[in-house]
């Protein structure tokens, strides 16, 4: 005999019939049909997140106020006194060397601010400079390159 697709049957006990609750008093899921006895939960049209008159969760939580600008650019700042401490001999400074010396974290923009004094010639490359930082660096003989 040749085996055909319509001869195939599932193994005995592999398919059990779906439970039809609330169909009479006897057996599996009769009478209250798994809803317990009385009360709102035994009746229909109650949302599953209803808390019985308690203040609902979505009203208890604080609202997130304000507006988050997705285009806002935030800089890590490095002041001139920090640059003086990290590079006492001067020289070329870029973002990679600042990351190596622990002044800034990787993968973010760097802005140089003018707090402090600088007495050595520094050629610095960064994403942004404040006006006071640029003037102090150039007065010390250095250069500022904006990326």
Descriptive overview:
With 147 residues, the protein is α/β, with parallel strands linked by helices. The protein has 4 helices and 6 strands. The strands form 2 sheets. Strands 1-3-5 form a 3-stranded parallel sheet. The radius of gyration is 36 Å and the shape is elongated.
Summarize the structure.
The chain is of the alpha/beta class and about 150 residues long. It contains 4 helices and 6 strands.
Can you lay out the helices and strands and say which pair or pack?
Layout: H1 57-60, E1 75-79, H2 80-86, E2 91-93, H3 95-100, E3 109-113, E4 122-126, E5 128-129, H4 131-139, E6 143-146
Parallel strand pairs: 1-3, 2-4, 3-5, 4-6
Supply database-style keywords.
alpha/beta, 3-stranded parallel β-sheet, 4 helices, 6 strands, 18% helix
Strand order of the largest sheet: 1-3-5
Our count of helices gives: 4
Could you name the ranges where pLDDT drops below 50 across 5 or more consecutive residues?
none
Alpha carbon gyration radius: 36 Å
Strand elements, count: 6
């Amino acid at each position: 005999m040749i085996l055909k697709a319509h001869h195939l049957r599932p193994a005995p006990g592999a398919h059990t019939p779906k439970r039809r609750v609330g169909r009479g008093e006897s057996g599996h899921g009769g009478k209250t049909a798994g809803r317990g006895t009385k009360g709102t939960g035994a009746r229909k049209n109650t949302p599953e997140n209803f808390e019985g008159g308690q203040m609902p969760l979505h009203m208890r939580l604080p609202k997130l106020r304000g507006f988050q600008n997705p285009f806002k650019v935030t800089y890590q700042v490095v002041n001139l006194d920090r640059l003086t401490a990290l590079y006492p001999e001067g020289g070329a400074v870029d973002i990679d060397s600042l990351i190596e010396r622990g002044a800034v974290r990787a993968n973010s923009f760097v802005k140089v601010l003018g707090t402090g004094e600088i007495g050595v010639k520094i050629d610095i490359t960064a994403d942004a400079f404040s006006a006071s930082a640029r003037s102090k660096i150039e007065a010390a003989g250095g250069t500022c390159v904006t990326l």
